[in-house]
Design goal:
4-stranded antiparallel β-sheet; alpha+beta; 5 helices; 2 domains
Length: 176
């Protein structure tokens, strides 16, 4: 077990996975990973996830998009190509509002997606858990809890006892 990336337990139900995640957190595991075919209510809290920076990135992306859209219109109307039409001011901001709003939404959406992907470590084309037996069932009807060996609380024998005490369908060693 020295060359293992970690240990993984397979569960038949979401409730069993949630119970296993809570037990792993109570046992001191801070980097446990859970895989499920659908969102499991309370799983993130059971694993100990904290707040993310996605909302901040979304706000900053929206702010940058809105300011960029406003500046682009202002520059083109006032500096680059000023047109005097019926004596209206060149920098009439009400006409800039629709594009400014849409650019803010676009910037926020792009920033949110990029921050979410970066926070999740995606795209990840290869991960050791992909080689675990029957792991492809995580996309259909099975639930998996992985205790990685790089977790400071990981001791192979203790982790094996913990997973066995959760009564999974089975637990396996995840190869590197």
């Amino acid at each position: 077990m020295n060359d293992a990336w970690g240990l993984m337990a397979e569960f038949a139900t979401a409730d069993a996975l949630l119970q296993g995640a809570r037990a792993a957190r109570a046992a001191g595991y801070r980097q446990a990973e859970a895989y499920a075919p659908f969102a499991v209510e309370g799983l993130a809290e059971a694993l100990g996830f904290e707040r993310t920076r996605v909302p901040l990135a979304t706000f900053l992306g929206g702010l940058a998009g809105g300011l960029g859209g406003f500046f682009l219109q202002w520059y083109s109307a006032v500096v680059d190509y000023p047109l005097d039409i019926a004596g209206r001011p060149l920098d009439s901001w009400p006409m800039f509002v629709p594009v400014t709003f849409e650019m803010a939404v676009l910037g926020a959406a792009f920033a949110a997606v990029i921050a979410m992907l970066a926070g999740c470590g995606l795209p990840q084309l290869r991960h050791p858990v992909f080689n675990a037996p029957d792991f492809e069932l995580a996309m259909r009807n099975r639930f998996f809890l992985c205790l990685p060996a790089h977790d400071p609380a990981f001791e192979p024998e203790a982790a094996a006892r913990l997973l066995a005490s959760l009564h999974p369908l089975r637990w396996v060693e995840v190869p590197r």
